[in-house]
């Protein structure tokens, strides 16, 4: 099943809205929930994205797959997978810090996010300034 752009946008807005509502309830102290529960919409959304990405990457392994432009496309999908895992690591570390499961410094919690942002800037720079030699 392939999702249209409109369906993906609607799904993104829905999960973002659910997360923000739960976050506001937690910050207003109206919901005494665990921080890991507040992030449930984020976990569900990330799981959906990871499954879709892994299915697309696994689709390259089936017989009869046309490998044209394959290595560049696979590198991009590998970067997306790494980016998703960095975001997941950041969210888990942030929840652990907010829930006081760890005494880790806040600066260390943000290392996966910084790595994600630097990687995103490198990819953006590569896509803007890369000169194709055809």
UniProtKB/TrEMBL annotation:
Protein's name according to its UniProt entry: TMM60 protein
InterPro entries: TM_Fragile-X-F-assoc
Key word Amino-acid biosynthesis present: no
Record-annotated membrane-spanning stretches: 36-58, 78-100, 106-129
Organism: Pachyramphus minor
Domain of life: Eukaryota
Signal peptide positions on this chain: none
Keywords, comma-separated and alphabetical: Membrane, Transmembrane, Transmembrane helix
């Amino acid at each position: 099943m392939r999702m249209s752009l409109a369906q993906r946008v609607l799904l993104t807005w829905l999960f973002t809205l659910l997360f923000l509502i739960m976050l506001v309830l937690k910050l207003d102290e109206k919901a005494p929930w665990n921080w890991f529960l507040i992030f449930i919409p984020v976990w569900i959304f990330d799981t959906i994205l990871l499954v879709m990405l892994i299915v697309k990457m696994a689709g390259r392994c089936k017989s009869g797959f046309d490998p044209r432009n394959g290595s560049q496309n696979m590198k991009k999908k590998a970067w997306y997978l790494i980016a998703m895992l960095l975001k997941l690591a950041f969210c888990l570390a942030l929840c652990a810090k907010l829930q006081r499961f760890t005494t880790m410094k806040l600066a260390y919690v943000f290392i996966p996010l910084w790595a994600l942002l630097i990687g995103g800037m490198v990819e953006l720079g590569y896509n803007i300034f890369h000169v194709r030699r055809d």
